[in-house]
Design goal:
Blueprint (H helix, E strand, L loop, with lengths): L1 E2 L5 E2 L9 H12 L1 E3 L1 H8 L3 E10 H10 L4 E4 L7 E9 L4 H8 L5 E8 L4 E10 L3 E9 L9 H13 L9 E15 L4 E12 L4 E4 L3 E8 L5 H8 L9 H9 L9 H7 L10
Parallel strand pairs: 3-5
Antiparallel strand pairs: 1-2, 4-9, 4-13, 5-10, 6-7, 6-10, 7-8, 8-9, 10-11, 11-12, 11-13
Helix pairs in contact: 1-3
Length: 280
C-alpha cells in the first residue's frame, strides 16, 4: 500500500501472475453463455445465504466446468468475463475480527471495502455470521478514491448493521490487509446458486505482499437453501468444503507470528509461505 498526502494508507494495485488456474477459469468462462449483471442479480442475488468454499486444482476445475456446462451462465460486462477485484479489510489494533474468526465466534463479522477495479467503483460491506441464517452481507456505495477509509456514511452503516445484531461497532478500525484477485462469476440457470471463482490472489499490507492461488481456484458456492447441484458435482469429484477466509489466510501469510490453527493445514497444502515479496 502507498500513502496519500494525508497519511492514510491506500492500496496500490499490483498485477497478478497468471498460472494454470487462470487458464482453467478463462476456458470455462469462454464456453459458457454470457449474461448481464442485472440478470445475475434477478436470478440469485443471495445477500442472505449459505456459503461453501472449495479449493479446486485447475484440472479438476476444468472437469467441473464440463459437468455443469449446460446448467451455468457466466457474468459478462462489456464483453469481459473475468474481473479484477480488491478488498481492503479493517480491523482493530488488537485484530478483533481476525481473532473472532480464529475462535469461531458465532456472531463474528468482517468490515471491508470492495473495489471493482475495471470500472473504478467501490462498496462498503459488513459481513456477519448468523448460526441460523448463514452469511449476511449488508453493503452501501462508497467513494472509490476513499476506499482506504471508513467515511461518516460508512460508519453509520456499520453501526446500524452491528447494532441490529446486538454488537457495538469498534471505534479503532484501521486498514489491516488488502486482497487482490481475478474473479469469474457463474450463475445457475434456475437461480438456485451462484458461484464465484477466484484465482491469482495477492495479499498485501504496507510493507509486505504474498502471492497465492496460481494453480488452484477458490470456488465459493452461494445458495439460499442447503447444498446445491454445484456442491453435489464437487462432491462427485471428491472435493469437500473447506473453512477458509481470504482475510484470515492473508493475515496469516503476512504475519507468520499470528496464531492460525484453523487454517494451518490449508496454508501448508495450498498456500506458499515463502519469504514475502517487496510491496510496490
Amino acid at each position: 500500500m502507498s500513502r496519500l498526502t494525508d497519511g492514510h494508507p491506500r492500496p496500490t494495485p499490483i498485477a497478478a501472475e497468471r498460472g494454470p488456474a487462470a487458464g482453467a477459469v478463462a476456458a470455462a468462462a469462454s464456453r459458457a453463455t454470457g449474461t448481464s449483471l442485472t440478470e445475475v442479480l434477478q436470478r440469485a442475488e443471495l445477500q442472505v445465504r449459505l456459503d461453501r468454499k472449495y479449493l479446486v486444482a485447475a484440472d479438476r476445475f476444468s472437469r467441473l466446468a464440463e459437468l455443469l456446462a449446460h446448467e451455468l451462465d457466466v457474468l459478462e460486462i462489456d464483453e469481459s468475463r473475468s474481473f479484477a477485484y480488491e478488498s481492503l479489510y479493517f480491523d482493530t489494533p488488537g485484530l478483533l475480527t481476525y481473532r473472532e474468526h480464529l475462535e469461531g465466534r458465532d456472531d463474528r463479522f468482517k468490515v471491508r471495502t470492495r473495489a471493482y477495479l475495471d470500472v473504478a467503483e467501490a462498496m462498503f460491506e459488513v459481513k456477519l455470521a448468523d448460526p441460523r441464517k448463514g452469511t449476511i452481507k449488508r453493503r452501501i456505495g462508497h467513494p472509490f478514491r476513499h476506499r482506504d477509509r471508513i467515511t461518516s456514511g460508512a460508519w453509520r452503516h456499520l453501526s446500524a448493521v452491528l447494532g441490529a445484531a446486538g454488537r457495538r461497532a469498534p471505534r479503532e478500525l484501521a486498514p489491516s490487509c488488502v486482497t487482490a484477485y481475478r474473479r469469474a462469476t457463474f450463475v445457475a440457470r434456475d437461480g438456485s446458486a451462484r458461484l464465484t471463482c477466484d484465482h491469482d490472489l495477492l495479499v498485501s499490507s504496507e510493507d509486505r505482499a504474498e502471492r497465492a492461488l496460481s494453480d488452484h481456484v477458490l470456488v465459493e458456492v452461494k445458495s439460499a437453501h442447503g447444498a446445491s447441484f454445484v456442491d453435489r458435482a464437487l462432491a462427485a469429484l471428491g472435493l469437500a468444503p473447506v473453512s477458509v477466509s481470504k482475510y484470515c489466510v492473508g493475515m496469516a501469510l503476512l504475519h507468520p507470528e499470528l496464531p492460525s490453527g484453523p487454517w494451518d493445514a490449508l496454508l501448508e497444502r495450498y498456500f506458499d509461505r515463502a519469504p514475502a515479496l517487496a510491496a510496490a
